[in-house]
Design brief:
Structural class: mainly beta
Mean pLDDT: 82
Number of strands: 8
Helix content: under 10%
Number of helices: 1
Distance between the termini: 56 Å
Low-confidence stretches: none
Radius of gyration: 16 Å
Order of helices and strands: EEHEEEEEE
Amino acid sequence: MRKIAASMFMIGILLAAGIAGAATVDISWTNPTTYNDGSPIATVDQANIVTSVYVGGTISGPWTLVGTSVAGGTSLTGASVTMTRGTTYYFTAKSTLNSMTSAYGTPTSYLYPNLAPAAPGS
């Protein structure tokens, strides 16, 4: 049985807003294009890949689900994540296609800044 390759995770994490203990993040990634055996995922099937995004406090987890994309999606916008300023967080993902779920993708780190973002127009 073929297994789906892990997501090519992560292209970007953008902090959209932050208040005490909570942040809203925009997260994007590239979906896998091959199975673990190297064979390509058909273009029509790529449009059915669903990606679940996770956050953790260390590079090896434990992982907490942030959100799940629509089929074929490559981003989550406005995902709410509880974070502490000055702390590094790690994001990873799993992709699912036709009941096959990948392993976690390579985690990407994000340092939540110590200072709150400036107000727009300031």
